[in-house]
Amino acid sequence: HHHRTAFEAATKGFVGGKVPLGIKRKGLRVVVTGGAGFVGSHLVDRLIARGDSVIVVDNFFTGRKENVMHHFGNPNFELIRHDVVEPLLLEVDQIYHLACPASPVHYKFNPIKTIKTNVVGTLNMLGLAKRVGARFLLTSTSEVYGDPLQHPQVETYWGNVNPIGVRSCYDEGKRTAETLTMDYHRGAQVEVRIARIFNTYGPRMCIDDGRVVSNFVAQALRKEPLTVYGDGNQTRSFQYVSDLVEGLMRLMEGEHIGPFNLGNPGEFTMVELAKVVQETIDPDAKIEFRPNTEDDPHKRKPDITRAKELLGWEPKIPLRQGLPLMVSDFRKRIFGDHSDANP
Ligand code: NAD
Ligand code: UDP
Ligand code: UDP
């Protein structure tokens, strides 16, 4: 059905559909929750560049003002400090819902808050979408597949998730967020989109967020040993952030609800990743083995056939090309060269 724009909403009711002089059609009005975070801030850059009016809603738990500061003073940009667990009234056309800590260290820090953010926060943003007729995109995660028994993971796979483990606040939180999204679609006719994002890296990641790519890069730059957890034979598939942002925008603009896997099928063991980091930064970097964390998934690799066919999307940047782009950002932030603060 028809997707109402803020322009149409604002001009609804004018006789004969005529728009009064002085009201001009502009870009869309878009909310990005979690827009001061890693992925969100790169998405905001693209939306602003294409002429949209962007409202970032963020509580700065893991996000930083520095990530969006270069838009301050732009009349098309607005930053609201707000926690999505609380209701929010806005008039917009599209909602990219990213608010949620993504790194295991951060989401385990206060698991009850994590599940509230995923459940109550997503409910509020769906309520908002319903009230104003906005299109809603959920950034779900490959974690909905848990410790997968199918490899690579297809969207039709229901997953293997521990409901009572230390990762459950995130995994089950996102699974419930997907359920809410589909129920608002079926029950309240909200236009929805669901992305299942696989491990993503790039400039602006939190330096000390504990994720494997940020850890290895920061460790190699600081001349510390790279900490491989467990035997290092577990795998992940790493996607560069600009590929993800392109996929999210295609999904939002396209006709398909999803869910869609958005990830790079290039699969690496943690030992192989450590070797790529050594090659990129410091061939003399030491590797140190540490005990693994609880419930760590053994392997993860997206099947992206659906996104290729229905969104015409596939990642363009392999790990060996993307990693150096992140390294130069980390170098500047760790060693304090601020000559280019906006990678
Ligand atoms: P991030 O931690 O950098 O960004 C999350 C943002 O949400 C931060 O700015 C944080 O301050 C904000 N936030 C958290 N809780 C909030 C709340 N209650 N109210 C308002 N704002 C809140 O993480 P990211 O890597 O940019 O992830 C963005 C989204 O993508 C998340 O939903 C995450 O689950 C999803 N995702 C990311 C990855 C990845 O590898 N980066 C993988 C799968 C899914
Ligand atoms: N909500 C919001 N902004 C809005 C509309 C709704 O934050 O513009 C919140 C609202 O407070 C509620 C949730 O979204 O907690 C779900 O709203 P809905 O209208 O679907 O349900 P109801 O309010 O009837 O429980
Ligand atoms: N890992 C590691 N060393 C680190 C941090 C993580 O070997 O310093 C491993 C971790 O055990 C997991 C993988 O890297 O197997 C990916 O972890 P991350 O926290 O980046 O993301 P996840 O995919 O688990 O959410």
From TrEMBL:
<keyword id="KW-0456">Lyase</keyword>
<comment type="similarity">
    <text>Belongs to the NAD(P)-dependent epimerase/dehydratase family. UDP-glucuronic acid decarboxylase subfamily.</text>
</comment>
<keyword id="KW-0520">NAD</keyword>
<keyword id="KW-0812">Transmembrane</keyword>
<keyword id="KW-1133">Transmembrane helix</keyword>
<feature type="domain" description="NAD(P)-binding">
    <location>
        <begin position="32"/>
        <end position="324"/>
    </location>
</feature>
<keyword id="KW-0333">Golgi apparatus</keyword>
<comment type="pathway">
    <text>Nucleotide-sugar biosynthesis; UDP-alpha-D-xylose biosynthesis; UDP-alpha-D-xylose from UDP-alpha-D-glucuronate: step 1/1.</text>
</comment>
<keyword id="KW-0472">Membrane</keyword>
<dbReference type="GO" id="GO:0033320">
    <property type="term" value="P:UDP-D-xylose biosynthetic process"/>
</dbReference>
<dbReference type="GO" id="GO:0070403">
    <property type="term" value="F:NAD+ binding"/>
</dbReference>
<dbReference type="GO" id="GO:0042732">
    <property type="term" value="P:D-xylose metabolic process"/>
</dbReference>
<protein>
    <recommendedName>
        <fullName>UDP-glucuronate decarboxylase</fullName>
        <ecNumber>4.1.1.35</ecNumber>
    </recommendedName>
</protein>
<comment type="function">
    <text>Catalyzes the NAD-dependent decarboxylation of UDP-glucuronic acid to UDP-xylose. Necessary for the biosynthesis of the core tetrasaccharide in glycosaminoglycan biosynthesis.</text>
</comment>
<dbReference type="GO" id="GO:0048040">
    <property type="term" value="F:UDP-glucuronate decarboxylase activity"/>
</dbReference>
<keyword id="KW-0210">Decarboxylase</keyword>
<dbReference type="GO" id="GO:0032580">
    <property type="term" value="C:Golgi cisterna membrane"/>
</dbReference>
